Amino acid sequence: MTTLQDQLRAQSDALMVEADARKQRRKIVQSVAHSSAMEGMPLDAQTMTMFEGYVDGTMTTEQMREAVLKQYRR
Which CATH class is domain 4-73? Predict the structure, then answer.
């Protein structure tokens, strides 16, 4: 059985890991946005909204891929 202190420490550690992962996802999105803009194709609002879902952790890369493919299959 874990103590309350152990549970709090585990929650704190999990939050720190998630914060680090979120920072990394934000850097990836910024890099993609910059690269796209440099190539003369800035990201539109719909794509940026989708990327924000990725940064927030509510959308996976596979879900983003499917959404983009669906957008162009119309």
Answer: mainly alpha
